[in-house]
Amino acid sequence: MSLLQEEREIILSNEYVDTFDFAEVAEFVKNASKDLFISHHFKKKNKMLVQPRGGFPTYKKQFALYEFFVDANVDVLPLTIDSNTRLNDYATSKKMLRLSEENDVDMLNGYPLVNHGYRTTRKMITNFNKPVSLRHGTPDARLLIETAIASGIFEIEGGPITYLLPYSKNFPLDKAFLYWKYVERVCANYSKLNEPINRESFGPLTATLVPPAITIVIQLLEMLLSLEEGVKSFSVSFAQQGSMNQDIVTGAVLKKLAKYYAAQINCSDASIHLVYHQWMGAFPMNKDYAEQLINMSTVIASMVGADKIITKTREEASGIPTKEANAKTVSNTQYTLGILNGLPNVVDEEEEEMLTLQVKAIMEAVFNDPADTLWRKVFNCIKNGIIDVPFSPHIINHNNMITIRDAKKNIRIIKRGNVPIPDRCYAYDKAQCDLTKDTTSIVNDIIHDIGIMQ
Amino acid sequence: MKVVTGVVGNDIHVVANRLIELSLNARGYEVFNLGVNTYLEEFFDAAVETGADVLMISSLNGEAEGWSREVKLLKAKYKNLDDIIMMIGGNLVVGTGSAEDIVPKYKNYGFDIVCHQVDLNTGLDMLEELIKERAIEVSNK
Q1: For A3-339, which CATH superfamily applies?
Q2: Radius of gyration over alpha carbons of chain B, in Å?
Q3: Catalytic residue among A8, A53, A86, A314
Q4: What is the spatial distance between Cα A382 and Cα A394, in angstroms, rounded to a whole number?
């Protein structure tokens, strides 16, 4: 028996799992409908796929949410997991699920997939016969993704960096890399049975003034960590940044460099997709304004040439959205996509060059780290601040990089910390901003820059 | 002047915490930022370890209310913390409440400066004033 299979048997002999039948699950994946695989829909390339967010504690409510989404002409269904399950606290999610079922009040902020189990959840997924994307935020997602794939969920979001640095203060980063290595291998193995399982990285990170160079570097590294384990279908992603031009430049550079670095490790056979998140920062309280913002995000996603868009709702500022509001966004976004024709082709060569130089310099620093494997190189580079994510709560993150918006609302690096931004690019970024002010005014500007959409 | 700061309890809201650090640095303080998700014991331990002059606790989700009740009791267990300036700010209540009710309550819990939904720079100005007052008191003794 392989080491991986030994580890799988330990993970799945969990007291919260009702006997996991490996052979039956493999047989199910092998014969599963192609429609359940987002990788299959990407291949057809008909249109930008629309995917909302959403998860409710009970089976009944999740089913009802899916009915609303299907009526709204959804392309990809979400399954958002509750926060207890994300922290592997299945006992609490079990208790809260029971309370939710008995009292008709939601006691969880998502669907506790492990507690529901794959036999139950699979009924729902196969009933709708649409691709489902697993949305969580779990550093140790081993049991969760085993349950997801066995349920018919063939897209797994996340990664060791993007699901840790924005969400946790002190979960050990090295452990996260090893737990995600397991996830990649399991996805790669199942991918041999039918259409490939798609892995997607979470580009928005903290959604707070993250400069595009950092976003792209982390997307590329999670892609490489996934491809090197044998994953054949991967989505890189990022969220609306505040400047349309910067988004277009970011999309172009990300697409080009993803191809370039995949080829460097002889993984050109893998298909790489681009996912765009509608604005992930602070939303306006005014729900009509929120809809305008969402609509603008859809236009930018089209300009960027995204393969999939992930939507927000008009209720974003007030809490977990109702299924009605959530479905409304889906149909509105589909409508906008349907009428967006004859988009101009915008290329900003100078900005693309600057961004490419930044990304390549950071990537080179990562590859030059003396560690023996890629994950250890990445780990070291986060530890020593070569990769620095603004506003990450994690203790390992340096927080020495400072960013601000220029007059056109592009995010610029005004203090690079330990990140090896080339001098020329650093001077270019700083030249776009008014840095004659005192630090207190700059802090006020940063506060304003974070909340620009409110 | 040394300041220990952080977000109390299981609160993970990090944005303001980083801005507080930046602003304190800009005003010339030496900052020891414990970040989000920090328990009271960790604050006091850090204050002793660094010899801090100011302990600045913040809260966004309002759970400070629950933790602050234990401040006096816990602080009494530490030596050498009698002169430290205790400051708290952010959203100091779960749900809504008025500063009129909240400020006296927190002063009772053992805080010298209480900023409920007060602008960051106004709060830091209040701190500077108190530091000046204390310096005058000391020189008058």
Answers
A1: Methylmalonyl-CoA mutase (3.20.20.240)
A2: 14
A3: A86
A4: 11
